[in-house]
Design brief:
It is an enzyme of class 2 (transferase). The longest helix is centred in the middle third of the chain and has 16 residues. α4 packs across α7. The protein has a domain of 164 residues: Thiolase/Chalcone synthase (Peroxisomal Thiolase, Chain A, domain 1, 3-Layer(aba) Sandwich). It has nine helices and twelve strands. With 243 residues, the chain is an alpha+beta fold. The strands form five sheets. Strands 4-1-10-9 form a four-stranded mixed β-sheet, sandwiched between helices. A hairpin with a 2-residue loop joins β11 and β12.
């Protein structure tokens, strides 16, 4: 997750007031002028980073373990499936692939504290990862705006009755927006493993077009479950995912 900013503030809209042309001669009108054209020379900088990965929670922990050659891939355990105990073991035995790279959960400094980020029943795994990573990125950027104007100029890149809110792709950016009060444009890209890079590119263009001054952009996923593992273990267009 990244927090990006525009190096120089340029207002999106300028209002020009004039007298109304009504016969009474009273009243005022407002004309919205078009935003400035995007400029390839307009600088966009990354000011904050956040991460929740199988190597650990936080950019520092992830990077240190990555350069140290640590591997997060391990054998799939029954508890990873998050199913009732009486069915988890049987389901695990039926899966053709039993290798995963799971986010470490717990109360440790570099572990993902699930209880702290899933207090709302409408928050699923991938949304909780996005909330945690966005919080780190915003704090790293020292950008926790309290003024409405700054919130409006900040964008995200954010069967139970909670089923639909838990699976909608845009709910990750939506929950981040609600948590921090961001009121700017909200956009959710869905391009598989390229989503994070895609979102950063979209965020850069949004800044260049003047639609926002600050953006939070990134990607999130939580797919360690029986259905996802079984699906990726099947042959697709000549590629065999079975391990």
């Amino acid at each position: 997750m990244s927090c990006l900013r525009r190096a120089r503030h340029i207002p999106l809209l300028r209002l020009r007031r004039g007298l109304s042309s009504s016969s009474s001669g009273a009243g005022a009108g407002a004309e919205a002028l078009p935003p400035p054209r995007p400029s390839a020379g307009r600088r966009v900088v990354v000011t904050g980073l956040g991460a929740v990965t199988p190597l650990g929670r936080g950019v520092g922990a992830t990077w240190d373990r990555l350069v140290a050659g640590r591997c997060a891939v391990r054998a799939l355990a029954a508890e990873d499936l998050r199913l009732p105990a009486e069915t988890a073991g049987r389901t695990l035995e039926q899966l053709p692939s039993r290798v995963v790279a799971a986010v470490p959960r717990g109360k440790g400094e570099d572990e993902f504290d699930e209880e702290a980020w899933t207090k709302d029943k409408s928050i699923s795994g991938f949304i909780s990862y996005a909330l945690c990573a966005a919080d780190e990125a915003l704090r790293d950027a020292n950008w926790l705006p309290s003024e409405d104007e700054k919130r409006e100029r900040t964008r995200l890149r954010r069967l139970s009755p909670y089923f639909i809110p838990k699976i909608l792709i845009n709910m990750a950016s939506g929950h981040v927006s609600m948590r921090y009060g961001f009121q700017g444009p909200n956009h959710a890209a869905v391009t598989a493993c390229a989503t994070g890079a895609h979102s950063i590119g979209d965020a850069t263009r949004m800044i260049q077009f003047g639609d926002a001054d600050v953006m939070v952009a990134g990607g999130t996923e939580s797919s360690i479950d029986a259905l996802s593992i079984a699906g990726f273990s099947r042959q697709v267009k000549g590629i065999v995912y079975k391990i």
